[in-house]
Amino acid sequence: MPQFLLALLVLLVSIPNVWAQVPATAPLADAATDQSPLRLAQADTPGVRRTPRPNSPPSYSAMKDKYNKWTIGLAAGLYEGAGTRMAAELAKALEDDENMRVLPLLTKGLFGNVYDLLYLKGIDVAIVNGDILEHFKTSEEAGIVTQRINYIANLYVGEVHILARPEINSIQDLAGKVVNFNVKSSATGFTAPIIFERLGIKVIPNFDPHLKAVAEMTTSPNVAAVAFVSSKPLSQFQKSFPPGFKFISVPYNSRLSDLYLPSDLTAQDYPGLVPEGRSVQTVAVPTVLAAYDWPKDNDRHRRMVRFIDALFDRLPIL
Q1: Which of 49, 81, 182, 265 is disulfide-compatible with 77, CB 3.0–4.6 A?
Q2: Is residue 210 part of a domain?
Q3: What are φ and ψ of residue 21, in 5° steps?
């Protein structure tokens, strides 16, 4: 026998038989605790049943259902608007763990909230101006709005602020001049044109963002006034303005009484723009909580029923 074959035979005889060393009675690994690559691969293989562990956490699908079951989508408004602050208070007051959650969403504004309520997925309620139907009387959505939107409750009022340059002394002085109404989707962009039209004062409407227009009117006469509709006091008007800048009155009369309420701006609200001991007459827009009218057999209708019950139960908290 050649020497290399003899050496190979000696080597094979000297290697221990590892398979023979496993006792015949050794227990098989527990399927629930076996973490071998083979077992882990089988667990992820379609068609291979895995023995469930006791007290296992909920599945992804179960957690998704849990988080969505009683969640209400609320169209709030612009970041700096009163609607957003009110939506945050609603969410805080109605929070009830798994039983109710209100999810406020920043939007284009209180006017645009109507369209979000009508068409945007996930929106159940919205904060809108009470004069919103005035626009939809002549809009192609008029029928949809009256059929699909219901009002739940009044929330607060938003005062009409008109800040004017020194040469403007009354709202009639604005005829033929540029008045900024903020962006078109904002509450002001909708309400201010209605007020000027009803009062018979034809102005040149401008729809720049509020802060841009205020900066422009303080440096040039191109913009005669800015209008802004929101709950007083507004931080934008509590800073210093050049001498002569002031709020001008918006008369409350029969032309406005069907949509608006009488209100005023005082020196306590705006010490730099209203003289001490005096007030400026204006009007206020009622702001309401509106809901989409879901069919009664729809899951979102059941959510709305629970939301409304929770809202009126917790009004004292608000």
Answers
A1: 81
A2: yes
A3: -80, -15
